User: Which sequence fits this backbone?
């Protein structure tokens, strides 16, 4: 027996006890969705790991690239599935290190099947002797340049060398749904990524003021959602017109309070979208003190119209940390493209930084925004965005 495959390791899922099978099933389904059309035959669970089996026409390099965007994976490795025989382990190890350059190595064996006659130390010694003879490298158990991993389980064994870090976190979908207020700036896409990593299925809402502004923010936002969809496979984006609501607010509210009232209106509308999808929270890219609207009194005033919790995964980040994360995930270059968003309209020189709740509620009484809200929701455009063809999740 000799089969090329890919071994998947996860960390956090293994701590879920009674819910572990649910998390494993979600991870398995997400792996299959991410690798649709790449020659994956199936994904099966093995003693706290998963094993991807491949068709003859599999595209391994593309599969490995896709796995780097599957949340829930701690690391993965191209591996060889072989019979549970020491000679086969020796041969596989020598073949897997052939062509690699290294001066030191070690063998790391994990013997899950305790009925296998050789203990891990003896397997390490036997296989190590063969690798040393073939490569000329020395054994270094402390800091080797190359490690050959052997896992002995059930009636088979796996041998692998190259481990690739996965993104970690939890499989998307295990933490239910939330709605992200997405601008085409730097912060909110990073906030969306952070919540995807915690298993949240994210729905995106973007507010625009076309035709008063150019459609650039809409184009950039759609590009951002397309990129984030590579982590969640299928997304919904709502494009909600906001100009008439802004004009109504501007006609009543003094300049210093306008951004606060805009944000309150956005939260109200985003919550309506959340109710439609049975989502359990809102998400924003706000943090504390970065701009005038993000002081704690203002955040409290902006939160007041909604009942759902508002998640702010970037609340303790500084701007440079956010920029570095945006560069890492690939959203930064999209976010810095020129655009005008609806919040850039009518922004005062001296915005209020210590909003009075009484003043905000007085403005609410003077404004009659419900007809504008209904109209905005009726005119909202809903887009479905997918990264690969839909997958039914059946066993392969």
Assistant:
């Amino acid at each position: 027996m000799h089969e090329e495959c890919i071994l998947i390791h996860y960390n956090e899922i293994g701590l879920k006890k009674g819910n572990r099978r649910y998390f494993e099933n979600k991870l398995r389904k997400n792996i299959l969705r991410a690798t649709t059309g790449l020659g994956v035959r199936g994904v099966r669970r093995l003693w706290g790991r998963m094993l991807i089996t491949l068709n003859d026409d599999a595209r391994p390099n593309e599969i490995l690239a896709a796995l780097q965007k599957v949340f829930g994976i701690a690391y993965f490795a191209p591996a060889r599935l072989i019979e549970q025989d020491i000679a086969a382990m020796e041969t596989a190890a020598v073949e897997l290190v052939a062509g690699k350059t290294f001066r030191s190595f070690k063998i790391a064996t994990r013997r899950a099947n305790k009925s296998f006659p050789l203990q891990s130390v003896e397997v390490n010694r036997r296989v190590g002797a063969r690798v040393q003879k073939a490569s000329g490298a020395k054994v270094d158990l402390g800091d080797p340049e190359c490690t050959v991993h052997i896992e002995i389980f059930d009636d088979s064994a796996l041998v692998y060398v190259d481990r690739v870090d996965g993104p970690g976190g939890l499989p998307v979908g295990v933490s239910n749904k939330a709605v992200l207020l997405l601008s085409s700036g730097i912060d909110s896409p990073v906030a969306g990524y952070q919540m995807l990593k915690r298993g949240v299925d994210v729905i995106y809402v973007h507010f625009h003021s076309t035709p008063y502004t150019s459609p650039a923010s809409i184009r950039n936002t759609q590009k951002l959602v397309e990129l984030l969809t590579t982590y969640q496979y299928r997304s919904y984006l709502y494009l909600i017109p906001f100009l008439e609501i802004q004009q109504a607010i501007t006609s009543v509210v003094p300049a210093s309070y306008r951004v606060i009232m805009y944000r309150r209106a956005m939260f109200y509308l985003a919550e309506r979208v959340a109710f439609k999808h049975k989502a359990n929270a809102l998400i924003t890219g706000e943090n504390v003190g970065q701009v005038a609207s993000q002081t704690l009194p203002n955040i409290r005033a902006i939160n007041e119209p909604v009942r759902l919790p508002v998640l702010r995964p970037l609340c303790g980040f500084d701007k440079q940390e956010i920029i570095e994360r945006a560069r890492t995930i690939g959203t930064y270059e999209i976010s810095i493209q020129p655009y005008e968003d609806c919040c850039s309209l009518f922004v005062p020189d001296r915005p209020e930084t210590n909003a009075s709740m009484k003043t905000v509620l007085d403005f609410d009484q003077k404004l009659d925004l419900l007809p504008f809200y209904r109209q905005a929701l009726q005119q909202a455009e809903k887009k479905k965005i997918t990264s690969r063809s839909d997958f039914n999740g059946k066993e392969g």
Summary: The longest strand covers residues 75-83. The two ends are 20 Å apart (CA to CA). The chain is about 40% helix and 20% strand. The first helix runs from residue 20 to 34.
